[in-house]
Amino acid sequence: MIASLIQLLTGMAEASSLFLVAAGLTVIFGVTRVVNFAHGSLFMLGAYIGWSILSRMPRDPEYFALGVILAGLATAAIGAALEMTLLRRIYRAPELLQLLATFGVVLMVQDATLHLWGPEDLTLPRGRWLRSAVVILGERFPLYDLILIALGPIVLAIIWMIFTRTRWGTLVRAATQDRDMVSALGVDQRRLFTSVFAMGSGLAGMAGALALPEASANLQMDLTAITDAFVVVVIGGLGSISGAYLAALLIGILQAVGIIWLPKSTLVLVFVVMAAVLIVRPNGLRGRKLTAARGEADTIASIKPASPSLKLAALATLAIAIAAPFVIGPFALSVLTEMAIAILFAASLHVMMGPGGMASFGHAAWFGIGAYAAALPVKLLTVSMPIALLIAPIAAGMVALAVGALVVRLNGVTLAMLTLAFAQIVWAVAFQWSDVTGGDNGILGVWPPSWAGPQAMYFLALSLCAGGALLLRKMLYAPWGFALRASRDSTQRAEAIGLDTQRLRLTAFTLAGSAAGLAGGLAAFTKGSVFPTTISIGHSVDALVMVLLGGVQTMAGPIIGAIVYTGLFDALLLATDLWRFVLGAAIVAIVLIVPQGIAGLAKR
Amino acid sequence: MMLEIEALQVRYGRALILQGLDFTVAEGEVLALIGRNGAGKSTTMKSIIGLLRPSQGRIHFNGQDIAGRAAFEIARLGIGYVPEERRIFTDLTVLENLEVGRQPPRQGRPAWTIERLFALFPNLATMPNRPGGQMSGGEQQMLAIARTLMGNPSLVLLDEPSEGLSPLIVQQMAAAVRALKSEGVSILLAEQNTNFAAGVADRAVILQTGHIVWQGSMAALPGEGEAYLSL
């Protein structure tokens, strides 16, 4: 009983930290309708800046408070600069492009932080007051946690006061509902948005600095923070601040208490709770139905069959691909194999995103499940490669079916965030369940049988991937594909003519998951190993960049994108240490300059 | 002239919605833009306030070229916009809605205050803290006008204020428009209801599929206007 009370308090302290990050994200989303992936980066910057300030100051509580506020102000300024240079230009872009552009910022900030503060984790020397504890029911409970518990509701109250009692808050709430009207009434909405963004960023920065006494500043905290914040914001309801607090409480307590019952599966628990909440309340605890996404139909134009010249080019490419292994060396061959796998990975995501209209930010989950589902039977049961390659798509497809059944009802950002959260959970399972998955060390020695050398593997990958991509294409031009596109363009009208839109979406979701799983299985055998990084956010983003680089609105898009991206990425890795920064900048540039992708550009 | 519009063209994608409009609104004048659905009345208003960018043509307000400028800048110069759909902030109360519209007073003109607006629309005075989403259509229309007046505009763009309202409320709207006129506020009024326009306007412009087909004094309109509208 006492133990659980202490756990409860720990959970509440955790909830406050979660809330501070999530509050900023939800405030920004509420007004600008942008899901800012870089919010986690602002949290991380807050921690690093806070460390730089606090480690130079006396270790008294008042200096700590001052340092936290300064870190918050600095992050607010960075946020404002980010809004003015990037976000302002993408407010009317489709959600996925916004997520992608802000992910580009995440990459850039990661490299910048690495170069400014170095790779080591930075811990803050703690003053005596930070180490002191209060005795509650005979148990020692950290004083700092008590302060955090109080801070959550205080910040909630302050935000609430600002939004309901000041002119600025009134304008912000009005802009949340109708920005054009606010502008037509003489309010400079650009400055309003910048100030909202600065406020949200400041909250994230303060949260980062406040996390210092209990954790170090490290380079992974950005993605951890953003994933947690996504979960909290989705459960609470996008744009709702009180909802974010409720959700933070729910998740914080769940994690703290769950760790007693199910020590290793708190993340799974979180996903189950999230799924349960969204089944009962699809818009979150306190959220409301969002108005339809703007402009999406414009960018996802109808797909037309390839022109004869494009078909000829495809045939020529295929002929070159078949002839190539007889001419090129082993390194180039491995790059080509990688490209073939990337094509299937990208084409499978394209089915979901383009014709399916479902934004996925966690496509690596299916790839990773396929990879592990192929590798594990080989290692544990010494199953042969052909059977393992059969298991991979089936396993990924089955999980996709189960997850899809929960999430295909959702749309836009919510769906993107949920797929991301699910991928993070799969990643955590692969990472934490080391008895089976080998954890961080991965599974090694997943080699193909002796009859399959690198060339044979290349042809296997090429035929499965080209075949898979062609099959996906064929399906999109079949009646099923038309029905899928119809339900994307107008769910209501599609249902009115008798289409089961949920079933169509679920089929597309499962199909895409299964195809990505096959790609993952192939990758396991060509690389000879599987690591948790195959499921990382970065890998999901790779797929997104391929599709968007090529163009969402063409079938050739993902294929061109996969080839170009894989080639460029390998060249980039060889060329520079700053590959994250360059890649991030390139992603931002793609979104700003060629949002319709290479294939779309060629069409124009 | 307070508002001068020359050769105004607006496109949506490939469709040319306004095909070159020329008209003016004088200080203190009420000009009715009359036309059926799709004639281009709302498009004209949106391009004046800056929510739509004209593809060609000039819009001068008090001698300044405002075509293509940001909506908030145009509003601050003294043009108020009351949209057809009213676009009340449904989560905000009556007082909060009015607060969003508030701008500093203008020289040489008495500023609108909450008290004066409540006197103009007594219905609003009875519900200062009601959320916009819980008001009737007529109340929302009054609030939309009051909210715009909080910006102390010298020209008000009033898009179909009588649409979908009961006859009693329409009469109140007409009285309010006349009250504004007597305050010296210029009004550009879009209407399908020629009776309403006849009761308040000095002059009329008849729009048909993006063209002006007739303009002249309101007194000359009856009969002729109906004929255009029934085309």
Describe this structure in words.
The complex is a heterodimer of chains A (604) and B (231). In chain A, the strands form two sheets. A two-stranded antiparallel sheet of chain A has the order 1-2. Chain A has a two-stranded antiparallel sheet with strand order 3-4. Chain A has two domains: 2-280, no CATH class; 296-603, ABC transporter involved in vitamin B12 uptake, BtuC, CATH 1.10.3470. Chain A contains 27 helices and four strands. Helices cover 74% and strands 2% of the residues of chain A. In chain A, α24 (537-550) crosses α25 (556-575) and α25 (556-575) packs across α27. Chain A starts with a helix and ends with a helix. Chain B has 231 residues and is an alpha/beta fold. Chain B has a single domain (3-229), classed as Rossmann fold (3-Layer(aba) Sandwich), CATH 3.40.50.300. Chain B is built from nine helices and ten strands. Chain B has helices at residues 41-49, 71-77, 94-101, 114-120, 122-125, 137-149, 167-182, 194-200, 224-229, and strands at residues 3-12, 15-25, 30-34, 56-61, 64-65, 79-82, 155-159, 186-191, 203-208, 211-217. In chain B, β1 (3-12) and β2 form a beta hairpin. In chain B, α3 (94-101) runs parallel beside α6 (137-149). The mean pLDDT of chain B is 90. The chains are: A mainly alpha (604), B alpha/beta (231). Chains A and B meet through α7 and α8 of A and α2 and α3 of B.
The helix fraction of chain B, in percent, is: 25-40%
- What is the count of helical runs of chain B? 9
Tell me which oligomeric state these chains represent: heterodimer
Task: Tell me the Rg of chain B in angstroms.
Answer: 17 Å
Low-confidence stretches of chain B: none
Helix content of chain A: over 70%
Count of discrete domains of chain B: 1
Quick structural overview:
The complex is a heterodimer of chains A (604) and B (231). With 604 residues, chain A is an all-alpha fold. Helix content of chain A is 74%, strand content 2%.
